[in-house]
Design a protein that fits this description.
This protein is α+β, with helices and mostly antiparallel strands. 21% of the residues lie in helices and 25% in strands. It is built from seven helices and 15 strands. A hairpin with a 7-residue loop joins strand 14 and strand 15. It starts with 14 loop residues before the first strand and ends with a helix.
């Protein structure tokens, strides 16, 4: 995993999740990412194995849900807010610009995930990735109206008056409001600004022509060990995990897990282990 990536601090067993920055893609994750044709709406699709196959049709939607292991739900952003969801037995990712947020993309994503995973909103953990921050997101009266805020009595923690007929919008707070209203109690992240942190994040508002970051979440497959030769010292065999980053991926007893998965290790290494006991 790239050291500059953002990783949710939630406690979600067997769930992998991250958000990339300017310094790396997600080709190294242990899941197949499925991308959407994002249109700033509220349509949500449920992904299955067929969606992860080469040449599969690209869904026009702004959020996706899956209960299949090894499939990564993704959101591509360069100022809009990515929101990741982890439930018992399911995950989801949503692309939430102000239009999609006002249209209810988070509510539809949560409802679809809870139906797919047979869980309650209170069991879902959510994480807000990097987006345009409240000191940089200047909006007009149309955005206030979309969220039902009055121009002359707006809440400065959501919409702070700035220039004449302009306000600074707090996109992460607006997302928290909607998730909380739906019964979500675990909401993390949302503290990074893509516009202000020029060296770490892409920003469409700052650069206009720019790249995209990817926020991804997936259900991990079973954890196993893989043996590989150490390129510095060929005599030494390095044992590494094939699943990163997954919450609670460390077993209670690494040695027992190592032995029970010995079929993936070369016999000379097993002999070396036996002689060391």
């Amino acid at each position: 995993m790239h050291p500059d990536w953002l990783v949710p601090d939630w406690d979600a067993p067997n769930v992998g999740a991250l958000m990339t920055t300017r310094r790396g893609g997600i080709s190294a994750i242990a899941a197949t990412p499925v991308y959407l044709k994002q249109v700033h709406g509220a349509r949500v699709v449920r992904l299955g194995r067929a969606d992860a196959q080469p040449g599969a049709p690209v869904h026009e939607a702004d959020a996706c849900v899956t209960t299949e292991r090894g499939i990564a739900c993704t959101a591509q952003v360069a100022d809009c807010l990515p929101v990741l969801f982890a439930a018992p037995g399911g995950v989801a990712a949503a692309h939430a610009g102000w239009r999609g947020l006002a249209a209810g993309v988070l509510e539809v994503t949560l409802r679809t995930l809870c139906e797919a995973a047979a869980c309650e909103p209170s069991q879902v953990q959510t994480w807000l990735g990097a987006c345009i921050g409240p000191r940089s997101f200047e909006v007009g009266a149309d955005v206030l109206r979309a969220f039902g805020a009055a121009e002359d009595a707006s809440d400065p923690s959501r919409f702070k008056p700035n220039a004449p007929c302009k306000w600074l919008a707090n996109l992460p707070q607006l997302a928290r409001d909607r998730l909380t209203a739906c019964g979500v109690v675990s909401i993390g992240g949302g503290e990074w600004c893509t516009v202000e942190d020029t060296s770490r994040f892409f920003s469409y508002r700052r650069e206009r022509i720019t790249g995209r970051m990817v926020a991804a979440v997936w259900l991990c497959t079973s954890v196993r060990y893989v043996a590989s030769r150490n390129p510095i010292n060929p005599v030494t065999t390095t044992v590494r995990r094939s699943m990163l980053p997954c919450s609670r991926r460390r077993p209670q007893n690494d040695f027992l897990t190592f032995i029970t998965t010995a079929f993936v290790l070369p016999l000379p290494l097993l002999s070396l282990l036996a002689s060391a006991l």
